[in-house]
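Fold tokens
===========
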Amino acid sequence: MSPNYGEGPYGFGAGAPSPDYGLDPSAPQPDPTAHLVERYYMSQFDTSTVGITIFVAGVQGDPDSNAVTVSMYDINENQVFSQLATRSAVGSYQFTFTTAQSALPGFYTVVWDFTIGAISQELQTYIQIGATNPAYDALDAGMKGIVESVWVRFADMFDSPQGGPHLQVFFQTAFSRGRLAQLLQIALNKINLTTQPAMSFGFTKGSEFPYQDWGGLLEEGLYIETIRHLIRSYVEQPMPTGVTISRMDRRDFTDRWQNVYDMENADYMNMLSDFKIQCMFLSRPRVLVSGGAYGSWGPVRLPGAAAARGVYRLGVGYF
């Protein structure tokens, strides 16, 4: 038996596995370890579909009477709802949240009950429902997948009980997937306008960024934009004076994140350069040796080859 989270562009879908380590301050949280479970994330009032795939003797198959009951419990073990799951294929069962079922942010456990050979079986799926956010909620499944992939890069950090940046512990801040969704627009703007050719990719139909092919570039762009956000956020860390109590000095977090940014930005600029060259629709570069063509490169970045200007240097050209 294994959870079935569906599929989608860029490897994420309406029910893709989504590790999450943040705490929602608006929800009851008596269990301090609740955030340590890998959870599928969905927004408040979302109507996502989640499901399971059942294997019998190693082969995908149905339980007794094709009946699977799905129930959801909050972290106080209070039942939120219970209903029959829908059979979508042999051994595959799912249910779709209603807005009422996803109305309260918090951590939840979805329990799937069924029998195989008259023996009771149970499988659990862990859910986090986060507060609604216009920037995040407006993204399609592929773009949300990019946000999730960047979000997990900030998991397991040392200085936060939630496992993310230390900013999450301050009530003055709102570091969340919604913030990353806003930074995603900035990352896309910079891809459009950094170096030639200028582009106009967006999130609306007809102008979508080709994340199926170049999702790694946008993901890296979002990652370094998030690091920039952390650098800016730590600029105003105060220096206490006239006190003698022990404290954690985080003023140098700006410099530490700057070091990480410099390392990541070098890789990102190489990726962006390759992407821009690809979008120029140039011919393939070749090298002429003794009157014959040997090998085939690119399109790639060639030192000394001014491809955009259509000139030839050192025997290297675009034709």
